[in-house]
Amino acid sequence: MIDSKDNSQLLRKRSFVLGGLKTLFTLIVFGKLYHLQILDKLKYGKLSDLNRIKVKILYPERGIIYDLYNNPIALNKADFQLNIFREKVDLINDYISSLSNVIKFSEQDLADLKENIKNKDLSDFIIMKKNLDWSQLERFELISNNFPFLIINQERARSYKNNFIFSHVIGYVGYRKDLKDKKLNNLKFGISGIEKLFDKKLLGKDGWIKLETNSKGRIKKELNKKISIPGENLKTNLIAPIQEYAYSLFKDINGAVVMIDCENGGVNCLLSTPSFNNNEFSDGVTAEKWKLLVNDESKPLLNRCIAGLYAPGSTFKLITALYVLEHLNFNPNTKYFCSGFTEFGDRNFHCWKEEGHGLIDLKDAIKKSCDCYFYNLAKLIDVDSLSEFSKNFSLGVSTRIDIPNELIGIMPNRKWKKKNKGERWQKGETLITVIGQGFMLATPLQITNMTATLASGKKIKPKILYSPDNIFENTEVSMKNLAFVRNAMYSVVNEYEGTAYSSRISGKYKLVGKTGTSQVRKISKEERELGVLKNEEIVYKLRDHSIFTGFAPHNNPKFAITVIAEHMGSGSKVAAPIAKKVMKFSLKNFLKKQ
Amino acid sequence: MNEIFLKLKNLNWLYFFLVSFLSFVGIVMIYSATSAMEMNVFFNHITKVFFGLIIMIIVSLIDMDFWKKNAFYFYLIFLILLVWASFYGHIGKGSRRWIEISGFYFQPSEFMKIFIILSLAKFFDEKKIKDPSDYFFLVLPILIVLLPVGLILRQPDLGTAAIILFICFLIFFIAGLSWKFFASIGFVMLMIAPYLWSLLKNYQKQRILTLFNPENDPLGSGYHIIQSQIAIGSGGVFGKGWMKGTQSHLDFLPEKHTDFIFSMLGEEFGFLGTLSVVGLIIVITSITYNIANKFNRDFFNRVLAYGLISNFFFAAMINMSMVIGLLPVVGLPLPLVSYGGSSMITYFIGFGLILSMDRKLKTNY
After folding, report:
1. How far apart are CA A231 and CA A158, in angstroms?
2. H-run or E-run covering A456
3. What pTM did the predictor assign?
4. Is A47 within the bounds of a domain?
5. Domain range for A67
6. Which residue is closest to B298 within chain A, CA to CA?
7. Do A4 and B297 touch (CB under 8 A)?
8. Which of A116, A206, B121, B342 has the most CB atoms at less than 10 Å from its CB?
């Protein structure tokens, strides 16, 4: 039997055991707290930061490219991008399917996304889709609460003022796959044109931002950041309205318009058609579209201004004339008789005018573009010397323009022929060389630079990038002879019977210049006998190119221009009228504007 | 009136202050935890704390003889309420356990804890254990425990049922039951453990399993434990400061104003904060032990005091163990600190009873 005293002693004993149990429990809890809060404090502190702090790369805004009068040509637009937290990469597939009636993901988007998932950079976010439009943004906003860990982010993306007009000169931007710095995978670099050449300046410097986010993937505040530094703006010598106007005249015509400022070498216009859409290229052109453009026979990707090679045709007669005056002390009053052809060796060399120009002097030979007169000059000329002389006018050499991929064409001589054709030079070849045909090839830019040099008497170096002062050396050509050639150019446009008379500009400021026809085919003897076919009668690809080069105003040269219209026949018919319009527009709007 | 004044004068105000201070810590933490919610959530809590303190005083002013005399009646009343709640009550948090009275919800199961303890104390006081191996004598106390536990399991509310069973075990132990009794119970439990395991819902099994390896399932049920540990651990010695806990305020910490309030305390007030609260709980428990021990042979009061304080102490420790990853998450609030509900009122009633005992010591002995 247990009495009540024993009972209470048992109770005391048991309560003591209970107290011990509680002490033990307390010690365990205490130990765990000590472990968590003292020993592992750093670990858990880091984990709590990892939970909330997300790093995003701040991409710099690309520098703006302006024309000479500060019209932006390449600027930036808002690009709304859908981002997901990198740690929630598992949600992507679910989200893509549940978002499908709001934001559609194209094949390209999915491929880009795959790439973005693969590229692990500093950023705690993955870009799911770029270029969201307003309706997508609005509709997403309404349902964004159902999509934790998705955020809309506004970046600045390249946008060109015009889709086509400046594509060749400005170029475009795009992603680069070969980057060492993975964090810049989503930054666009310059791929061609000015964008590529001055990429370092335009690019700027990236930064980062640390954001505090909550467990629902919403950004609560900015913690700290290193702001990105926007790229430098660039000012070019281009005059956007001139190039736009020139483009408007080039509907359905392939070719080029180049305009250079005769005073400072600034390139005011560098138009090449057909063109491509550089906005489309910058946003990421599809492989199919790319293939289509590469295989297009009209070569829209080619910048004809600096890489299109044409026989300069009769425009080269200006250099031939200057050469004989300068180096052979030729008397310009010397007259030759043009009967429509000149015999040389066992061949007849034909003038463009079948019935001939009759008795004619040098100035009239330029004015009327008489070929026979120049055939006669050719008999006096050593081609090596002419070739050397032409270099002063940037023919056969680089113009040293400040954009890459310029071609230098061909200014043939004996050495060149031996090297490239493996044959000796034949005197007959000098005859067609002096009228800018045969082997000779030049870019529209070279032809324009030639004209600018004639107009200014200075060794012009064309420049796209604006710089306030450019001083050029004088050429070694005498002023007197230059004046003669300029005068002849005046007569081409402004005197009756000049080949470009119909393209004259009335008023104070005169356009002067020279027409040219760049032969694409050789006219055979048989054809000659049957009667030369008119341009319209032969297939497009074999038709002659229409060329005009000139400058204005005649007495105080400012703008030098070259217009090439491919397969459009003689220079007077198509190129000269376009040059006149562009020049008239330029003189009216930009001659006195500084 | 004079009598009430006298009773108030005899109240153990230090004890009252300590208990109030713990609920004050709760108010401070709830303010921080509900800062992003509507303000009335916080006021709701304050109102309940105030109401609880008043109930504690009212209970403490009623003499222990009254509680002893009517223990079984209270038990029966709440057993009926529990039946009602378990079959017709309001469903919340996945179980049918609430009764609605004019807009207020309360859980009979929480109040039942007090009255089971009260009834067991009364039973063991009146029927002193003569022979510890007299099993027949144990039928009634086991029924007192199993009836409500069965009802609560039906709701189902595994956490509450488990804690009641545990506390009752302790009371049986204190009351002097033979070791053999516990040994046989333990043996039976072991035998039926696989069956009990099969009765558990999948999420309940998951909670127990993830306890041993929370990293195994960081986004599922292990997520809460990991985030809670991060919150507490990142608090360090001094904490991140009141209202400045990132884990809690950025919603990485779940249930921060209820079950996980201790994690938030750890994050915002650090080791010093958690240690102070543990210390406060130990002080309250020790003082209660002191009071209980003074009752010597008064079996009723002594067992009741041990039972009530164990209920409080173990609830607190289990809650802490749960949020620091020592025990599975069972849905048990931290007494007096977590956002108020029926359980908070229950603890206030418990402390009221202990205060009444203390008063009895001063007047009777």
Report:
1. 12
2. helix A444-456
3. 0.80
4. no
5. 54-214+223-231
6. A8
7. yes
8. B121
